[in-house]
Amino acid sequence: MIRIHDFRDDHPDFLSLLERGAMPDPKVVAAVAEIVESVRTGGDEALFHHMKRLDGVDLAATGPRVSDADIDAAHRAMPTPLLEAIDAACLNLRRYHERQLPADYRIDGPDGEILERRYRPIATVGVCVPGATAPLLSSLYMNLVPALVAGVPRLVVISAPRNGRVDPAILATAAHLGVREIYAISGAQGVAALAYGTKSVPKVDKVVGPGSIWVSTAKRLVYGVVGIDSIAGPSEIAIIADATASPRNIAIDLLSQAEHGTGQEASVAFVPTRSQAESVRDELNRLARKYDLASAVKPALDRHGALFVVNNLNDAVSAVNKLAPEHVELLGPEAEGLADRLVNFGALFLGEQTPEPVGDYYAGTNHVLPTQGTARFASGLTVADFLRSSSRVRYTSESLARAGDHIRNLAEAEHMRAHRLAVELRLHPES
After folding, report:
1. C or N: which end of the chain has fewer Cβ atoms within 10 Å?
2. Which one of 283, 326, 329, 352 is the catalytic residue?
3. Model confidence over 90-138: pLDDT tens digits?
4. Residue 265 lies in a domain
5. Is 327 annotated as catalytic?
6. Residue where a domain stops, chosen among 228, 259, 274
7. Residue 397: alpha-carbon gap to chain centroid
8. pTM (predicted TM-score)
9. 410 lies in the same domain as 272
């Protein structure tokens, strides 16, 4: 399921990893655009049509909003150990994200002028939560907690109904965090409903959360009508291991990313010897058989699974900086010592006792991260994604007089006569 190669920059498997961020299939874009436009113009009728056609659920009679009774029942039925785990994870998330809150500031100038920056929460945010194949409740609280820390007053959750109902674990998690506006809608039609609003689904100002290629393409198309967090791609991990690292740990961590289910996930490791690579491959195959993982991981490992043997770990660092992956693990003391040389990644996990799922579920850092090379210019989800900032400016007659010549010269350089006059006529009202 996974291939071993001597690493080089132009190896076809390495180049295919670099190319994973290509634009989506034009046929997918066209199909999604048709769905989005139909919901924009047709509202609930189009939304319900697509939900019946694509998700097999008829919302015409019941409407898309989940009832309070169903939410309360799901919350009551949630196993106590799971609620305790959610509480602990969200406490860690809140503690980490509260440190991200920016402070308003003010600068007072010598002639009475004032410059200010103020931060305010976005008024309404919609959170997409995958739930058709498995209830990704961690994705829900990873999005909700920073939004709650930011103070967003209206939070909306949408999730694919399974057998006509949103998964109880998603309902219970949202309710546990105080969010009760939940809709049994999904896919491109769900994103469009959030962006444009329908009779049954009030519009929001920003759409966040992961999803299929249909969801990510719809988010791309509605950007500008609403804000979005990012265009999320399939999950990925790059592991740099030294000669002391456990082959079993490397193998299971590669498997943990390959099991996400799209078949497009990338699981890559860089090791210093072929014998170590062979040990990792053997462990991977053994674990996949022992724990019945083969069918879940094989499509992804066949496409984007690789064990690269490097001449030295410096070459591995260079390769990972080019890949700019979502997750990076450094396993073994020599590998850990290279941490500061890594610059392009979503999240970094240091040491044999820090597997990537620690961050996925619990540590407090956010697991909504840049994928497919976008870590070169993008960051993971933070409180700032749920805030908007604006400036305030107040000048006095003295400060405007002091700055007048500079402003006039700049306006003249840009051939903006009225801009210049807006200052001059204040300074010389008799003109």
Report:
1. C
2. 326
3. 999 999 999 999 999 999 999 999 999 999 999 999 999 988 778 899 9
4. yes
5. yes
6. 228
7. 47
8. 0.94
9. no
